[in-house]
Design a protein that fits this description.
The structure holds 2 protein chains of 2 kinds. Chain A is an all-alpha fold. Chain A has a domain at 95-290: MetI-like (MetI-like fold), CATH 1.10.3720. In chain A, 77% of the residues lie in helices and 0% in strands. Chain A is built from 14 helices and no strands. Chain A has helices spanning 2-29, 34-39, 46-55, 62-74, 88-123, 128-142, 145-159, 182-188, 192-229, 232-239, 244-281, 287-296, 300-328, 330-334. In chain A, helix 5 runs antiparallel to helix 11. The longest helix of chain A is centred in the middle third of the chain and has 38 residues, at 192-229. Chain A is globular, with a radius of gyration of 24 Å. Chain B is of the alpha/beta class. Chain B folds into 2 domains: 33-60 and 79-228, P-loop containing nucleotide triphosphate hydrolases (Rossmann fold, 3-Layer(aba) Sandwich), CATH 3.40.50.300; 245-335, no CATH class. Chain B has helices at 46-54, 80-86, 98-101, 108-119, 124-137, 143-146, 156-168, 186-203, 214-220, 238-243, 248-255, 295-299, and strands spanning 4-13, 20-30, 35-39, 62-64, 67-70, 73-74, 91-94, 174-178, 206-211, 223-228, 231-237, 305-307, 310-312. The longest helix of chain B is centred in the middle third of the chain and has 18 residues, at 186-203. The chains are: A mainly alpha, B alpha/beta. Chains A and B meet through helix 10, helix 11 and helix 14 of A and helix 2 and helix 4 of B.
């Protein structure tokens, strides 16, 4: 198992280097001048310009610049935002819990509904239930997030007035950020109203962001389950006299989960991409909205840092999915 | 009273309007401690019969029977709970492909202990102890280590031994072995049969041995049921059937055995395949493949009739010397 872990972790290094290379070259690939992009100043006098060229190390050969960049990365230095002059890492760390909270809830929603829906659809295949689950999930999967989010806002916030339109919590509540997770912080504050407010702010973005993963998980679970239910070992389990529930929940599901876990890992990338749209629409102060604003403001250090950090998170999630894959699939774990 | 008593078992698949009859009017009884062989080509309904009596035929398959009783209990009227209590404890089954019949996600110990826990219960340590004993009984080398192995770490023969251990765990009165040696190496096949026979003797359980290989039946069973396209075509004691097959199909199966072809450069074969859903002939189901078929065979489906000491489904059963008796088919009279 340890060797397996090490092999998987070893694969992360080249992927990470690839991303640094991409992010590094970003500043040279964007139209316009690298010095102006990095400093955010335009039409500066030649003396200042040449000083900045030297300061940014742009007068060095490219490979030296790249290794300088890597060296700074290893020290956790991702540069400063042009707009706020805050370190990129610090901005990221303050905003990331919001995105994490939203993504976590969206994934939870996708799992809580998607897994049982997929299992039921497989067990009742070719019935009304199966067709409904598959039809609804295909619709959900095909719906663009921004449109779906607007529909949700129109119905639940504007027409029915059940949920707030945007933000993470009512402005009346001023909570000290302890964990950065609004649900937790509001609970810690001891104010039930704050918790309720945080929860009601979370509902619509969670649905908007969770819909696509939900649809994918439901469909994948269904097809994996259908395949597994035909397997000989399921027949063996039934011939042993096990109850129907035990055959499905232990013998079939355990095997069906193997491909589903892979898909769940891939959906984390979709979540982060979807967070950009969802956070923008719901004014959710997370890294998605942060990145979009940075692009609008041409805040290149933030764009670079944001991309690198988001990509690193996706790599790490996929690594943990690989490891989890080994845990639930003994054939992977033991093979060399 | 027989241990297993089946009358007029009927299994259908497909739509109600155009059903495919997989098992047709099958009568079968097995006495306690008896070894019965069920033989026939692929698609003759052997496995479906076994699955039907286990209650493992799922919708859209339909099972009906005049009577289907195990040790006096009606199998068709069982509640789901009663059936679960019976399967694996009173009736156990092992399957053709041992490599896919064990769950790849669980260890040998887990799968063995699961059967024991469901049917008799006990502490984890007790169950593990019992699982170890079972592995020893099926002659698995190094059983202590095999307990914690996953199925993909076992060879085919070893997996089948684990399947056998799982099947005999609760001392069943009837063990159904569906092609237990087909997927195994020839050298392992004999060992596996020997193991099954030894366990059968020691425990006095009845053994229903499903195979397409008559030579396996010859070594093991007391009685044999020959099936073709869902029907019983001949049944009787093993010595009788091997000496004087009455049904042309049985004769053809025997003629195809290598033992009967010594000195020949080619094995005798029965041309064609078992008819499927869409090519079931009228009359006798075997008639397109039967070298003795007459117009009567093509028109009227024969019933199972008593021929001295056997039941045979043929209009023109063969005599003791393997020749036609009742009638010389027209056309072949001059040949």
């Amino acid at each position: 198992m340890f060797g397996f872990l090490l092999r998987r972790a070893g694969l992360v290094v080249p992927t990470f280097l690839g991303i640094t290379l991409l992010v590094f070259s970003l500043i040279h690939m964007i139209p316009g001048n690298a010095v102006e992009a990095l400093s955010g100043e335009h039409g500066m006098d030649p003396a200042r310009y040449s000083r900045l060229v030297h300061e940014f190390g742009l007068d060095q050969p490219l490979y030296v610049q790249y290794f300088d960049y890597l060296g700074k990365l290893l020290k956790g230095d991702l540069g400063f935002s042009i707009v706020t002059h805050e370190p990129v890492v610090r901005e990221f760390l303050t905003l990331f819990p919001a995105t994490l909270e939203l993504s976590f809830c969206a994934m939870l929603l996708a799992l809580i509904i998607g897994l049982p829906a997929g299992i039921l659809a497989a067990l009742k295949r070719n019935t009304f239930l199966d067709y409904s689950v598959m039809g609804v999930s295909l619709t959900g999967y095909s719906m663009p997030i921004f449109w779906w989010a607007l529909l949700l806002i129109l119905l639940f916030s504007v027409t029915l007035g059940w949920t707030p339109v945007s933000g993470r919590i009512d402005i009346l509540f001023d909570l000290p950020p302890v964990t950065g997770f609004m649900l937790v912080d509001s609970l810690l504050s001891g104010e039930l109203g704050a918790f309720r407010s945080a929860l009601s702010h979370l509902i619509l973005p969670t649905i908007a962001l969770g819909t696509i993963p939900l649809a994918v998980i439901a469909r994948m679970t269904r097809s994996a389950m259908l395949e597994v239910l035909r397997e000989d070992y399921v027949r063996t389990a039934r011939a042993k006299g096990l109850s129907r529930l035990r055959v499905i929940a232990i013998h079939a599901l355990r095997n069906a989960l193997i491909p589903v876990v892979t898909v769940i890992g891939l959906q984390v990338g979709t979540l982060l991409a979807g967070a950009i749209l969802t956070e923008t629409i719901f004014s959710w102060p997370g890294i998605g909205k942060w990145l979009v604003e940075a692009i609008h403001r041409r805040d290149y250090p933030v764009v670079q840092g944001g991309i690198l950090l988001s990509a690193s998170i996706i790599i790490l999630v996929n690594l943990s999915v690989d490891v989890l894959y080994g845990v639930i699939n003994p054939r992977i774990r033991r093979s060399s | 009273m027989s241990l297993l008593d089946i009358e007029k078992l009927h299994v259908e698949f497909g739509s109600v309007e155009a059903p495919f009859t997989a098992v047709d009017d099958l009568d079968l009884n097995i006495e306690a401690g008896e070894i019965i062989g069920i033989v026939g080509e692929s698609g003759s309904g052997k496995s479906v019969t076994a699955l039907a009596l286990m209650g493992l035929i799922d919708f859209p398959g339909r099972v009906s029977a005049g009577r289907m009783a195990f040790a006096g209990r009606d199998l068709l009227g069982l509640t789901e709970r009663e059936r679960h209590a019976m399967l694996g404890r009173d009736i156990a089954m092992i399957f053709q492909d041992p490599m896919t019949s064990l769950n790849p996600c669980f260890t040998v110990a887990y799968q063995l202990m699961e059967t024991l826990r469901v049917h008799q219960g006990g502490s984890k340590r007790q169950l593990r102890e019992q699982a170890l004993t079972l592995l020893k009984q099926v002659d698995i080398p190094d059983p202590e280590h095999r307990l914690d192995a996953y199925p993909h770490q076992l060879s085919g023969g070893m997996s089948q031994r684990v399947m056998v251990a799982m099947a005999i765990a609760c001392n069943p009165r009837l063990l159904i072995a569906d092609e237990p040696t087909t997927a195994l190496d020839v050298t392992v096949q004999a060992q596996m049969l020997e193991l099954l026979l030894q366990l059968q003797r020691e425990r006095g359980m009845a053994l229903m041995l499903i195979t397409h290989d008559l030579s396996i039946i010859a070594q093991t069973a007391q009685r044999v049921v020959v099936m073709y396209a869902g029907q019983v075509v001949e049944t009787g004691s093993v010595p009788r059937i091997f000496k004087t097959p009455r049904h042309p199909y049985t004769q053809a199966l025997l003629a195809a055995l290598p033992e009967y072809n010594i000195g020949q450069s080619r094995l005798k074969t029965l041309p064609g395949v078992v008819p499927g859903q869409y090519d079931r002939p009228g009359g006798c189901l075997l008639n397109p493949r039967c070298s003795y078929a007459t117009d009567r065979c093509r028109e009227i489906r024969p019933a199972l009739s008593v021929e001295e000491d056997a039941l045979v489904r043929c209009h023109f059963p063969l005599d003791a010397a393997g020749r036609l008796t009742h009638c010389i088919p027209e056309g072949s009279a001059t040949a």
